[in-house]
Amino acid sequence: MNISVIIPVYNAEAFLEQAVNSALIFEEVKEILLIEDCSSDNSLRICHNLIKRDSRIKLYQHPDKLNHGAGASRNLGIEKATSEFIAFLDSDDYYLPNRFDAEKSIFKDPNIDGVFGGLGVEYLSEKGKSEFEEKFKNTTLTTVKYHAEGKEIFRGLLNLTSEFFGTFFHLNTLTIKKSAIHKSCLKFNTELRVHQDSDFITKLSYYCYLKSGIIDRAIAIRGVHDNNRITKIKMYSTEYNSKQLLLWRSLYIWSKNIHLNADEKKYLLLQYKAFELSTQKGLQKYINLASVVVKYPQILKTRYRFTYTKR
């Protein structure tokens, strides 16, 4: 195997070296692409120091040297990657020594496009731990509930399998053939500053033949600290509902131009409508809700609380 690891870098001076070192230990990793995204701390200087240490480490910035977000940075990484396989790593996270163990056997099957596994947690501050536990409760392993492959993964991510598959798997644990990404013409949605990874994974599971790898234990670690963006957004807050609306709108618009089963199309429509309602206010919100319920009564069974917003 030969793997390109893509690391978007933004204000990661405290964590970047550990992330890079965790990828360097693998002989399969032929290059590490640091995509520096106009950091305001010392991240760029650290990037320059790192590329002097190992020829596998390469540094790129956006042509205008401005900040474009993680999605655009990953797109640039995919464009620059030269290896057969691509893996992703957030700059404040790191790989474990078993990161690519499953890939070595699973990719012997030429029909497999991608493999994913479980993501663990390391608490780097008490404040970060408190915020993470408040939002994600006792979720110390981000994973799926059972082994699956192919279309069952796509349907599982939409909660349409007979048993609960799991909410999602993390991008840090995905290894994907570069050719599969190009064949699907898939890119990260740069309009999503949050949840662009969930958007990408959902679409990828439709276009590509994915298979679960090591899902009962971690193959990478999420570093939880004071500045994790995802934990700052409180569940069902105005900001949370607005970010979710952007995600489900992206998936809904995408779904209109591809072939999906009726229940898959309906699920994406209902999630989009639910969060669209969640961002509305006053009497007009309930008038619109009544209209939607008449047409789509199943919206009352969506797992999101669209009928109110926490301030």
TrEMBL record:
Domain Glycosyltransferase 2-like: 4-134
Gene3D superfamilies found in the cross-reference section: Spore Coat Polysaccharide Biosynthesis Protein SpsA, Chain A (3.90.550.10)
Pfam annotation, one family: Glycos_transf_2
Matching PANTHER family: GLYCOSYLTRANSFERASE (PTHR22916), UDP-GLCNAC:BETAGAL BETA-1,3-N-ACETYLGLUCOSAMINYLTRANSFERASE-LIKE PROTEIN 1 (PTHR22916:SF3)
Name of the featured protein: Glycosyltransferase involved in cell wall bisynthesis
The species this protein was found in: Chryseobacterium taihuense
